[in-house]
Amino acid sequence: MYEVTPDVISIEEVTNKVVRPEAGAIVNFIGTVREFTKGKRTLSLTYEAYPAMAKKQLERIGNEIQGKWPDAKVAIAHRTGKLAISDIAVVIAVSTPHRKDAYEANEYAIERIKQIVPIWKKEKWEDGEEWIGDQLEKTNYPDGKPEEVKAP
Amino acid sequence: MYEVTPDVISIEEVTNKVVRPEAGAIVNFIGTVREFTKGKRTLSLTYEAYPAMAKKQLERIGNEIQGKWPDAKVAIAHRTGKLAISDIAVVIAVSTPHRKDAYEANEYAIERIKQIVPIWKKEKWEDGEEWIGDQLEKTNYPDGKPEEVKAP
Amino acid sequence: MITVQCFAHLREQLGQDQITVEKEKLTVKELLKELTDQYAIQTDSLMVAVNEEYAEPEDSVTKGDRVALIPPVSGG
Amino acid sequence: MITVQCFAHLREQLGQDQITVEKEKLTVKELLKELTDQYAIQTDSLMVAVNEEYAEPEDSVTKGDRVALIPPVSGG
């Protein structure tokens, strides 16, 4: 149900993992590579993962969701490697008997992915490239390390 | 972008209609036929539409979304005819630059579909069948007409 | 003559997918009254669509318009 | 010897995907201090994972554990 993969992600395939007779609603989140962020043009993204831990953390998110929405079933696939504009980086599928829960649990999953799953993205622009530094997508590491770091 | 069809709906196909470089987030809602509702087992559903008007009302929902979330792009497909358990009845895809809007606009779309789009479902159970009578899925028409109807 | 399309339980109840009223022009409200008298259907929870848009009771319906009775919807 | 995996900007900065500390057992906090001294990396915003779980400063790290430095993540 949880996958970190260098291969193209199929929305249908991830969705099919959560289809079941008890479910009447499935909500998917599909993260794609956006061309412009705050006016700056992205050429490509590269995702690097710590695969074994990333899979474990995705499972943890699934367990957290099970605790909060016991009727939900979750599947997540996150891609690694170099992605072009509009390529799919992540697919989250959540099925529930009733739709409200599916929206909520799905949004919870993407928030948590951005907090705890060891996957990093490097943005490539026309004038350079940088590792993106925090899960809120607000900080860049212009010289390859977090800005807020002080000498220990 | 808006379709009412007797054919099987492809999630990928509906999703692909909203993929674009400006979007970083796509949220899908996929309505599937649920087997049990309040303990009662459904064998199949039949959806009947007033196709020309249903398409027009789906377009209206798209326009409403454009007004509320100007950056959103929406595609909707609703199936008609006889559906088995877990078959897809409806797919809504919404793409936006940022994910919060995609969740909100998508949920708005399904709420509005249940209010204004002239499509009706007939549930078939082991002991009979009934047209489902209101958009909140709370009222059945046990004798083929709304319970609350009084003589005019 | 005005032709009125019917769907779902109404279609089944009437045994036909359209019914007619021998008028050239009338309001939505008058149309519903005619249908009630002629076909013994209960119209309290029905909406009327004229040319694929929901119509108000005082809107007028003219011969040639595409008219339909819309029971509470249950798609999605 | 404890082997520590590195990712993303850290991997590029160090020019290698793992670094080592000549210890048999120490705490996460001590490990970070060792790495700072030995490799001149800044560790304030780094988390440490031990056997694929996030570890606390007082947790212990033993030779044979799978250890990794986790910069702030940016997946999704």
Mean pLDDT of chain C: 94
Helix-strand pattern of chain C, N to C?
A: EHEEHEEEE
The CATH architecture assignment of chain C turns out to be Roll
Q: How does the overall form of chain C come out from the CA principal axes?
A: globular
CATH superfamily of chain A: Molybdopterin biosynthesis MoaE subunit
Provide the domain count of chain A: 1
CATH class descriptor name of chain A: Alpha Beta
Helix and strand pattern of chain A: EHEEEHEEEHEE
Q: Which topology of chain A does CATH recognise?
A: Aldehyde Oxidoreductase, domain 3
The domain count of chain C comes to 1
CATH class of chain C: Alpha Beta
| Total helical elements of chain C | 2
The quaternary state of the protein chains shown equals heterotetramer
Which structural class best describes the helix and strand composition of chain A?
alpha+beta
Radius of gyration of chain A: 16 Å
Major sheet summary line of chain A: 5 strands, antiparallel
Share in helix of chain C: 25-40%
Q: What's the β-strand tally of chain A?
A: 9
In short:
The complex is a heterotetramer, with two copies of chain A (152 residues) and two copies of chain C (76 residues). With 152 residues, chain A is α+β, with helices and mostly antiparallel strands.
Please tag this protein with its features.
A: alpha+beta; five-stranded antiparallel sheet; four-stranded mixed sheet; elongated; C: 76 residues; alpha+beta; Ubiquitin-like (UB roll); five-stranded mixed sheet; two-stranded antiparallel sheet; 2 helices; 25% helix
Structure commentary:
Chain A is of the alpha+beta class and 152 residues long. Chain A has one domain (2-132): Molybdopterin biosynthesis MoaE subunit (Aldehyde Oxidoreductase, domain 3, Alpha-Beta Complex). In chain A, 28% of the residues lie in helices and 36% in strands. The relative contact order of chain A is 0.23. By secondary structure, chain C is an alpha+beta fold. Chain C has a single domain (2-70), classed as Beta-grasp domain (Ubiquitin-like (UB roll), Roll). In chain C, the strands form two sheets. Chain C has a five-stranded mixed beta sheet with strand order 2-1-7-4-5, covered by helices on one side. In chain C, strand 4 (47-50) and strand 5 form a beta hairpin. The termini of chain C are far apart. The model of chain C has no long low-confidence stretch (mean pLDDT 94). The chains are: A alpha+beta (152), C alpha+beta (76). Chains in contact: A-B, A-D, B-C. Strand 2 (25-32) of chain A pairs antiparallel with strand 2 of chain B. Chains C, D: Pathway: Cofactor biosynthesis; molybdopterin biosynthesis. Chains C, D: Belongs to the MoaD family. Chains C, D: One of its GO terms (cellular component) is molybdopterin adenylyltransferase complex.
